[in-house]
């Protein structure tokens, strides 16, 4: 145990000067479950004790610590020391004594990003490969040494770091341990917290090699400070928007000047009806659809829908209601079939008070049975100002 602590101290002394350029990692406490039952028979063959019995070590709690240094942004080398304190079981399966297993090993933690490329993902899986020494001792209740084994081991495992921030990471790992001297396998599952000193090692950025100038042929220097390739009046050396069209107004940096323009909407709709009817005929639905499309294009536009009747029917009051029904029919189609908000549409009926043709003829009366709508609105657009544009 003394030798193991000296090894850790030596590694700490070696790693400290490198902390300024690479992350020194410390896992102050590693907790795990040490599985050794797979080695029961082999341990019984090897660990014959002074009391005439043969023993093997039971599964138990593993506690350890590790000190490491990053070799690349995703790979590090660690020295780890740990102890498993459990019971010793004899060949008859009786727990009679105490067993302790000390392990010290040097392990490489090789991150998957070493092969796939570095990312900002907090989850960092790795493969562990290493070797070291294991020492098992069995003592009786009085602390007298009964038997033991000091062997070379190899470690192989899979694990992952979860980086909480640039200094702290959570660590979880599953590991297989092979005893080379006695040819048995053990297993371990462990978890812990890793602290990095000096920050993680950052990925290096490749710098292209410098080309030596040809001393025999001096380079030709072309002065382009006065060139204006796009003809906008701004030299290329300070032009932030090269390639500007010739007719566009630019600012002092050579970039187009934005300007707001207002586009006004004004359109009319005429829908004609059969005598004494307020139903819209199919031939007018495409025209109403065009009105709806324009009103969606101009969100602030409104429509005034006027209904009219010919001078037929039983009374002026009847024709008034009929004209109002025709205006409402157009409004309902715009609202129900094309989704125009009702508050953008107003209706009014004029009866037969505003004819546009002679009510004494059939042709004239057909022209007067109508809805007339006026749609108005505007929208503001930001465009690039051109030299032929008059801005008010």
Chart the SSEs and their pairings:
Layout: H1 2-15, E1 24-35, H2 40-46, E2 55-57, E3 60-72, E4 75-90, E5 95-111, H3 113-116, E6 123-139, E7 145-163, E8 168-179, E9 184-197, E10 258-272, H4 285-297, E11 302-307, H5 316-336, E12 345-349, H6 362-368, E13 370-384
Parallel strand pairs: 11-12
Antiparallel strand pairs: 1-3, 1-9, 2-4, 3-4, 4-5, 5-6, 6-7, 7-8, 8-9, 10-13, 11-13
Keywords: Membrane, Signal
Domain OmpA-like: 260-379
Signal peptide: 1-22
Question: Could you describe the 3D structure shown?
Answer:
The chain is an alpha+beta fold. The chain is built from six helices and 13 strands. It has helices at residues 2-15, 40-46, 113-116, 285-297, 316-336, 362-368, and strands at 24-35, 55-57, 60-72, 75-90, 95-111, 123-139, 145-163, 168-179, 184-197, 258-272, 302-307, 345-349, 370-384. Strand 6 (123-139) and strand 7 (145-163) form a beta hairpin. The longest helix has 21 residues, at 316-336.
